[in-house]
Write a structure and sequence with these properties.
Layout (H helix, E strand, L loop, with lengths): L1 E9 L4 E8 L4 E10 L6 E6 L4 E6 L7 H16 L3 E10 L10 E2 L2 H8 L9 H14 L5 E5 L18 H5 L9 H14 L1 H5 L1 E7 L3 E7 L2 E5 L20 H11 L3 H10 L2 H6 L5 H6 L3 H25 L4 E5 H6 L1 H10 L9 H6 L12 E4 L4 H15 L1
Parallel strand pairs: 1-6, 6-8, 9-12, 12-13
Antiparallel strand pairs: 1-2, 2-3, 3-4, 4-5, 7-8, 9-10, 10-11
Helix pairs in contact: 2-3, 5-15, 11-13
The structure holds adenosine-5'-diphosphate.
Adenosine-5'-diphosphate binds next to helix 10 and helix 12.
């Protein structure tokens, strides 16, 4: 009976999962899926590794399945799938590991209690990430669980890169730059040597451009700076998040518009970014296909902010050997990649347009001083690898 590892990524309204089978040297994806609309119109779908739907269920409008109900359904589905395999560990994506968790950790009740302390640092994600861990600890206490953090990869940032120019007391109390999307960057750093061994030993900027978007400066496979800070709203404009915003704007909105914390939270997390600027959509595909000048402004601003951050991160690195595009927009949009690469010509990036149109992986010309790549990320596989490694070593 072969070992299998379940990867769980729980959010406020969905639980995503993937199941990996352990082979001698690798992990093979068996099935992946999600339950969406946990509290509105729950829908389950699972696909095999070829992308074909193998199971689907809808609970109907208004049904409130919740995290517990969704987890039960996923567990039942997986039991049915696993005649020849045995789930030996569950790996969870957890957004915040604070300063303490610089690597994945096997969870027990004490670790959950420690991770609950980070809820105020990531109130929109952390509580939902912890819910399935708590449920499984209650229901299957013998099942090994591992928490993998979006912040851990950035703990190699120098002290100075983690610091705000706030009074020291606030820094000491944890008000500092943590950085996010770490599992994605760690995955890219793990495969970069196969593509460009020299860059992997040197200086690389990775652009994770999905609904959430950030950039990370990596030197010799370790993060040294990133665009996200105390929360995942900093840095680049995203689908619906502002990215970096003069803190004076927040004060102005409070004083002049009477907005409270919740109203500002909604504004900067859900109503801004590509959606807010365009007034049309948070989806890059829709904006690229639109003739509306507001869509153009949103895309222009998106690319302009990337251009600025590229300069900033290249300065933090003190040079540049490679740039890597990843996540939904980075992996799929030749147009955005081309714009970013053209803007980065001064840094030594020379695009190969035909290779870019084909989707890479290498999208820079042979003579380009800085190589450019489009490489799919795989945060789930990173979590599965960590889970296997940690439990194997236990
Ligand atoms: P998440 O952060 O939710 O995981 P993804 O990494 O899936 O998001 O990225 C979603 C974004 O990728 C959306 O803005 C979507 O429009 C964009 N995207 C996906 N495919 C394409 C494409 N072919 N061209 C442009 N944008 C794309």
């Amino acid at each position: 009976m072969a070992d299998a590892f379940l990867v769980v990524n729980a959010g406020s309204s969905s639980i995503k999962f993937s199941l990996y089978i352990a082979h001698a040297e690798s992990l093979g994806l068996a099935v992946r899926g999600q339950v969406e609309g946990l509290f509105t119109s729950p829908h389950f779908a699972a696909k095999n590794d070829a992308g074909a739907v193998v199971s689907e269920k809808a609970w109907g409008e208004g049904a409130k399945l919740g995290h517990a109900g969704a987890l039960d359904h996923i567990a039942g589905f997986i039991r049915g799938e696993l005649a020849e395999h045995r789930v030996v560990g569950v790996g969870h994506r957890v957004v915040h590991g604070g300063l303490e968790y610089t690597r994945p950790v096997r969870v027990n009740a004490d670790v959950v209690a420690a991770l609950e302390k980070f809820i105020p640092l990531a109130p929109l994600h952390q509580p939902h990430n912890l819910t399935p861990i708590r449920l499984l600890l209650e229901r299957q206490p013998g099942l090994a669980q591992v928490a993998c953090f979006d912040t851990s990869f950035h703990r190699t940032n120098p002290e100075i890169a983690q610091r705000f120019a706030l009074p020291a007391e606030l820094h000491d109390a944890g008000v500092r730059r943590y950085g996010f999307h770490g599992l994605s960057y760690e995955y890219i750093a793990s495969v970069l040597p196969q593509h460009d061994a020299q860059a992997a030993r040197g200086k690389t900027i990775v652009l994770h451009l999905g609904n959430g978007a950030s950039m990370c400066a990596i030197e010799a496979c370790a993060s040294i700076a990133s665009t996200m800070g105390f929360t995942a709203v900093d840095g680049l404009p995203m689908g619906t998040r502002t990215g970096a915003l003069d803190p004076g704007v927040i004060l102005y909105l409070m004083d002049q518009r009477g907005m409270d914390a919740r109203a500002i939270e909604k504004l900067i997390y859900n109503q801004s970014g590509l959606l807010g600027v365009s007034g049309i959509s948070s989806d890059m595909r829709t904006l690229l296909a639109s003739a509306d000048p507001r869509a153009k402004t949103a895309i222009d601003l998106y690319c302009y902010r990337i251009r600025r951050e590229l300069g900033s991160l290249a300065a933090a690195l003190g040079g540049l050997d490679a740039i890597v595009f990843t996540a939904g927009i980075g992996e799929n949009s030749a147009e955005i990649r081309a714009r970013v690469c053209r803007d980065a010509a001064w840094l030594g990036v020379e695009l190969d347009s035909a290779a870019n149109a084909r989707g890479g992986p290498r999208i820079s010309a042979a003579a380009s001083r800085v190589s450019a790549w489009a490489i799919p990320t795989n945060e789930e596989l990173m979590i599965a690898r960590h889970t296997r490694n940690l439990l194997g070593a236990a």
